[in-house]
């Protein structure tokens, strides 16, 4: 499995083609289902319309029948009583029958069979109305006897039965048509329902298939994420291992460097110091012997002796840079106090040293580590801090020694410890870690200046750290270079490691 961190990488598409097709099919099925439902809704609306139309047709037919029947009953009442009040239904029928027949024609316009029945019904109704009007005229001119005679010769009940029968036939046909259309609609609705059910089943099947695909993709993504996490864990473990190896190597190099410096300081002090002392004695003796007989040679030997004294001073500065003699002879407190005084004189800064006498209980490796951390911090302050006041505080804290170097300068960036070229700060941290200690570099109080805090544990009495060698360098003795002058030697500060261009010291 491969993972890319290239910002220019762009995937071809978000989903595979078959997943996109499945989505399209699912959407199409749902659209078809929606269309089918809309058509079913239109069919239901049409069925309701036809039902309402059939009801109106039935109501109109019944009303036509009622008009004719009431007109006939009213005419009979007029014949018996002679009151014009009974002629009201006849006059109403004459005015409304044509309108009702017209409405029925409009309602049955899409049904030719019913139109024929309606035409026949209209003929029967008109015939019946004509007979009733004729009977009314006869009654008004002849009287009831003529009406009775006419009634005996005509088939009046038969005509009314025909009208009723025609109404019943039309109503029956309308009901049959409505039933047939209802059955057709039911069949259509049943087919639509089955189609909708099948569509829903198909949609559910497609959704389940798509869900399985998505779940499979999700599982694959989880596996990929798990593999990526394992790879990251392996890389982090590898980086941590390599970092630990480099840190161990760095501490080993620091330890070896200090041992080598101590060895060189001892050899320079012992062997070169003895040789230079012997040369100085020889030059002084020969110069005294040639002073009277060969003054020029004696003067040359005097110049040689001065050069030798400068060489001795140079040797002492080199020895002090390699391994401060006060650190091994008088202890950490005296060495750090002396270095702070020399630092104040050389940099003209107010350097306040607060040294706990218990600091002398530190072992050789603890002492040199704390001294180098203080030396590095002070050099950085002199080079970059632009400070006016410096405080060096060394005291016993718990089972170890705590060193704090603070100033009132411009401060240090928060990411200084993470920079790759912060060799000085990294060296200070490695010196602390070499002794199972800690180092913290941060802003000072209220964000003013920089504060370097280091803590190293005190070694148990009689114990010697693994991989370290304790080397004591004797204090420089007086060199008898002729007139018994003593080599004072310059302050160790003047030849201490100077800060580099990146803000940290380089030895």
Instruction: Flag low-confidence runs.
Output: 1-7, 460-507
The neighbouring-strand order within the major sheet is 1-2-3-5-4
The coarse overall form would be: rod-shaped
Number of helical regions: 10
Average pLDDT figure: 75
**What structural class is derived from the secondary structure elements?**
alpha+beta
Tell how many strands the DSSP assignment holds: 5
Largest sheet: 5 strands, mixed
**Gap between N and C termini:** 47 Å
State the helicity in percent bands: 55-70%
Note the beta-strand portion: 5-15%
What Rg do the Cα atoms give?
Answer: 62 Å
Order of helices and strands: HHHHHHHHEHEEHEE
Describe the structure.
With 507 residues, the chain is α+β, with helices and mostly antiparallel strands. It is built from ten helices and five strands. The chain has helices spanning 17-81, 88-107, 112-141, 144-153, 156-293, 295-322, 325-329, 332-347, 364-385, 423-434; strands at residues 350-355, 389-397, 400-407, 438-443, 450-457. It has a five-stranded mixed β-sheet, covered by helices on one side. Helix 9 links the parallel strand 1 and strand 2 (389-397). The longest helix has 138 residues, at 156-293.
Question: Could you give the topology of this structure?
Answer:
Blueprint (H helix, E strand, L loop, with lengths): L16 H65 L6 H20 L4 H30 L2 H10 L2 H138 L1 H28 L2 H5 L2 H16 L2 E6 L8 H22 L3 E9 L2 E8 L15 H12 L3 E6 L6 E8 L50
Parallel strand pairs: 1-2
Antiparallel strand pairs: 2-3, 3-5, 4-5
């Amino acid at each position: 499995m491969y993972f890319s961190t290239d910002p220019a990488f762009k995937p071809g598409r978000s989903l595979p083609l078959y997943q996109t097709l499945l989505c399209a099919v699912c959407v199409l099925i749902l659209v078809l289902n929606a269309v089918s439902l809309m058509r079913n809704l239109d069919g239901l609306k049409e069925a309701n319309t036809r039902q309402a139309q059939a009801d109106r047709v039935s109501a109109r037919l019944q009303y036509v029948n009622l008009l004719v029947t009431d007109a006939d009953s009213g005419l009979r009442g007029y014949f018996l009583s002679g009151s014009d009040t009974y002629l009201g239904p006849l006059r109403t029928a004459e005015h409304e029958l044509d309108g009702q027949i017209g409405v029925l024609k409009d309602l049955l316009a899409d049904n030719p069979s019913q139109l024929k029945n309606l035409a026949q019904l209209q003929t029967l109704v008109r015939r019946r109305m004509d007979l009733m009007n004729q009977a009314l005229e006869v009654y008004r001119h002849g009287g009831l006897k003529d009406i009775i005679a006419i009634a005996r010769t005509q088939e009046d009940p038969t005509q009314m039965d025909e009208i009723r029968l025609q109404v019943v036939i039309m109503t029956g046909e309308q009901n049959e048509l409505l039933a047939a259309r209802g059955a057709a609609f039911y069949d259509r609705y049943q087919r639509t329902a089955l189609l909708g059910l099948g569509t829903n089943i198909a949609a559910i099947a497609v959704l389940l298939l798509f869900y399985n695909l998505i779940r499979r993709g999700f599982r694959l993504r989880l596996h990929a994420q798990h593999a990526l996490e394992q790879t990251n864990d392996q890389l982090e473990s590898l980086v941590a291992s390599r970092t630990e190896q480099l840190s161990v190597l760095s501490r080993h190099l620091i330890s070896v460097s200090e041992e080598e410096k101590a060895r060189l300081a001892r050899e320079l002090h012992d062997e070169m110091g003895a040789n230079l002392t012997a040369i100085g004695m020889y030059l002084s003796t020969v110069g005294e012997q040639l002073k009277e007989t060969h003054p020029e040679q004696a003067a040359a030997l005097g110049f040689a002796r001065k050069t030798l004294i400068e060489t001795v001073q140079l040797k002492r500065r080199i020895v002090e840079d390699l391994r401060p003699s006060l650190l091994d002879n008088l202890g950490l407190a005296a060495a750090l106090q002396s270095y702070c005084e020399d630092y104040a004189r050389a940099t003209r800064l107010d350097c306040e040293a607060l040294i706990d006498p218990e600091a002398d209980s530190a072992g050789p490796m603890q002492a040199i580590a704390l001294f180098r951390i203080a030396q590095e911090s002070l050099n950085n302050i002199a080079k970059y801090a632009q400070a006016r006041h410096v405080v060096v505080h060394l005291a016993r804290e718990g089972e170890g020694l705590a060193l704090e170097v603070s100033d009132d300068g411009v401060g240090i960036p928060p990411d200084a410890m993470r920079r790759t070229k912060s060799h000085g700060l990294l060296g200070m941290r490695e010196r602390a870690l070499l002794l199972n200690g800690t180092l913290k570099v941060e802003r000072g109080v209220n964000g003013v200046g920089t504060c370097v805090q280091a803590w190293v544990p005190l070694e148990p009495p009689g114990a010697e750290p693994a991989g370290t060698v304790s080397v004591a360098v004797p204090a420089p003795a007086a060199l008898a270079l002729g007139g018994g002058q003593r080599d004072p030697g310059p302050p160790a500060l003047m030849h201490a490691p100077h800060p580099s261009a990146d803000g940290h010291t380089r030895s």
